Amino acid sequence: MECPPPVDETDLVLLGHGAGGRLSAELLDDLLLPALSGTGGPGRRAVPLEDAAVLPATGAAELLASTDCFVASPLFFPGGDIGSLAVHGSVNDVAMMGGRPTALAVALILEEGLPLKILDRVARSVGTAARDAGVAVVTGDTQVVNRGAADQMFITTTAFGTRLPGMRTSAAYAQPGDTVLLSGPIGLHGTAVLSTREVHGFESEIASDTRPLHHLVRAMGAAGGAAVHVLRDPSRGGLATSLNEIARDSAVSVEIEEAAIPVPEAVATACDLLGLDVLQVANAGCLVAFVAAPQAEAVLAAMRATPGGEAAVAIGRVRDWPAGQVTMVAVRHVVEMPTGEQFPRIC
Amino acid sequence: MECPPPVDETDLVLLGHGAGGRLSAELLDDLLLPALSGTGGPGRRAVPLEDAAVLPATGAAELLASTDCFVASPLFFPGGDIGSLAVHGSVNDVAMMGGRPTALAVALILEEGLPLKILDRVARSVGTAARDAGVAVVTGDTQVVNRGAADQMFITTTAFGTRLPGMRTSAAYAQPGDTVLLSGPIGLHGTAVLSTREVHGFESEIASDTRPLHHLVRAMGAAGGAAVHVLRDPSRGGLATSLNEIARDSAVSVEIEEAAIPVPEAVATACDLLGLDVLQVANAGCLVAFVAAPQAEAVLAAMRATPGGEAAVAIGRVRDWPAGQVTMVAVRHVVEMPTGEQFPRIC
Question: Nearest residue of A to residue B101 by CA position?
Fold first, then answer.
């Protein structure tokens, strides 16, 4: 057994990095700010860091905010990492309110001893994902806890945005007759993360679907406007949780068709292997929408014409009874008109 | 040695409480929402929980946001707990920008096995502190990590607010000639927390100064308006860090008088015992202000007339040289006019 290379303490996160003093300032100047801003090397900050950020002006638009904790284990997984996941997760929560995300706050809780290389890699991923999504990282905070008091790093992101004109979505706005649309295949994120854990360790080509969804939402709004009643990204708890929340909050019945739900074969295999219900597996880059039936075709077409929505499908519809319940039609036989005489005539 | 009472698993935070499904919903309905809202017992949520919150309209005012991680150990300390500390910390960061805090997002990272009683107590403290500060908890998130992957609980709060008319504070706005004001005694929070840790375990009557400071800021703004150049709450890193940040960002020299800085006797004793520099000890309920000299007296009088500012004092002034440096005058002798003839006359 070979000895590990000696560890240089200057390459690790220290408690002092969170103490607010000189080490904190150096971590900001030399690593976090360059990584988040994508400017590369260390350098002095251009502007003073204030206690709070001034957010972009919203004009007459409604202002939205969403906060989320991310505790990914492992930090890196096929298709993404905790950094891109945190950006996309918060951006998508604003998008699900019919919003255009504009700014992001990033709060880091770091475990003492975390290699600075890992922090740098995650911070760069946050910066890249934020720029790709068109949101600015406007403020943040960093805390360091004792070795063993956290699992490497946790990220809490808060996204800000404005409501798109003409959109007003809510989990309470589903109506009987609505068509249920799904933007793409489910189960990718959860199974991709699980595939990397040693305890499971199955071979797979599955990559997380983590991506921002606000461009898709904008296209849907342009096509359907107020006919888009509900938007949800089925992340933790999966599609089953999102549909149940909507059924409950809207007091409607949701009926979905098992055969219509796109489940990649590798995901289905992984779920079989792990004993998981794919409907309960976390996603990170798809959304479910409830759209008034007359506009559903146009919204579906707009989704398919937008990156991230190419595989969009209709998966169900809304009934008025039994309120609060989600049912899945697993097997459906076509019931045909009788072609001729049946049993002995009784009438 | 007596056996501990048997632990009922239903009294503990479980991994499932963060999974987004039924247990998550129950935790929200039965504990978090009643505790945060102060309505007491469990009950159904009144409105659906959306992915994002709509923030209060700001009109023409600038919108401010600040995010902070809180990792207090222990969770409860004389004068407060991690819940009230998190609310005050974020509210104060908005206040330091000359802002009126209006809303709060609360993100919880919980360790599996945390007693629900402790979570309830902290959540109630968040709710009470928020109501007392006049801010609404508008959105949040809860994650549960494996036992040992976090130290009981971490809170990340994000505060939103609007800039008060006529105020425009920044760490970069200190000017030569400014008077440095301090709203009250320093060192209370840090030494109160340390006094509760077993490893130190000294007897003391010290209580944290954790409190919201936005009422104080409003009074200062009314008295001094734009003459209030800089506001900072010297939390992590203490007064030394805040003054150095201001000296650097404003490119000025800050000179403070040791004798003018209020340090409670118990705090001084604790700092001696622990070998701490009181200037570097964290505070949670005082602020330092840089005010144009002509308005400094009026601002100081307004502070003294406002709860939380009764003990406000002037502690120093701003020079133009040496830029970026903070100096403390430890001993000052009055230099008198010579009363008569000195040495042998040389001129």
Answer: A52
